[in-house]
Design a protein that fits this description.
Blueprint: H1 3-6, H2 9-15, H3 28-36, E1 45-49, H4 55-64, E2 69-74, E3 87-91, H5 97-106, E4 112-115, H6 121-131, E5 140-144, H7 164-175, H8 189-192, E6 194-200, E7 203-208
Parallel strand pairs: 1-2, 1-4, 2-3, 4-5
Antiparallel strand pairs: 5-7, 6-7
Helix pairs in contact: 2-4, 5-6
């Protein structure tokens, strides 16, 4: 076990897993723990898109603790077998805005969204556009396996228009909307409601928070 994994409860769970199958890149666990630790033992509502064999649903329950509600989304009806008292399974296409709208209606409060679904550009962009504004004001949105943005079979390509990587680069501009949006113009949810955007190998993490206009001031005494 590497030094990064030694103190990480998610990595420990994954490496000792004897339950249902989990499919994850090892470097993801440090990223998850860095951004999600504050939700542990606080009964969060966690939406994971992409259920696969159901192992990550068990992992999230172990990590977040008693009281967590985990919602799994998948296109495969066979994943319904993983539903239990604290886990909801929804069957549908993440690229379908109507289906995502039903999720918003059914779950008024979502703390964490992890998009580990089909990884196509349309799926990732549609899901983010439909669900990020619905995320609670201090929620965390994670989109993973972003290397598909460079793979033609998923609709990707280096610096190709329409990939999720290129889309998410625009979020950097949105963070700075205070400095270029005309005075009196309403700021969008990405400027007024996003605290930060963190890029890692194959993962982007967007932290949501209501943001006031940046304030610059000076304290202390002048030296010259």
């Amino acid at each position: 076990m590497s030094e990064e994994h030694r103190g990480n409860p998610l990595a420990r769970y994954f490496l000792s897993n004897r339950g249902r199958m989990i499919d994850k890149w090892h470097h993801y666990f440090e990223i998850y723990h860095r951004h999600l630790e504050r939700f542990r033992r606080r009964s969060p509502v966690v939406l994971e898109i992409g259920v696969f064999q159901g192992g990550s649903l068990q992992m999230w329950h172990d990590y977040f603790g008693k009281g967590a509600r985990v919602i799994g989304v998948d296109i495969n009806p066979r994943t319904r077998q993983f539903e239990d008292d604290s886990t909801t399974i929804l069957i549908g296409d993440q690229a379908d805005p109507a289906f995502l709208g039903d999720i918003r209606k059914r779950f008024a409060h979502i703390d964490v969204i992890v998009d580990d679904g089909g990884h196509t550009m349309a799926q990732q962009i549609t899901t983010f556009g439909e669900l990020y504004p619905h995320l609670q004001p201090r929620g965390v949105y994670i989109c993973e396996d972003l290397h598909t943005s460079y793979m033609p079979m998923y609709g990707g390509g280096l610096r190709r228009d329409g990939t999720f990587i290129e889309f998410s680069k625009h979020l950097i501009d949105a963070l700075h909307g205070w400095y270029y949006v005309a005075e009196g113009t309403e700021l969008d949810v990405y400027t007024a409601g996003t605290y930060g955007v963190s890029f890692y190998d194959s993962i982007v993490v967007i932290e949501k928070r209501a943001i006031s206009k940046p304030l610059l001031s000076q304290t202390g005494n002048r030296s010259y």
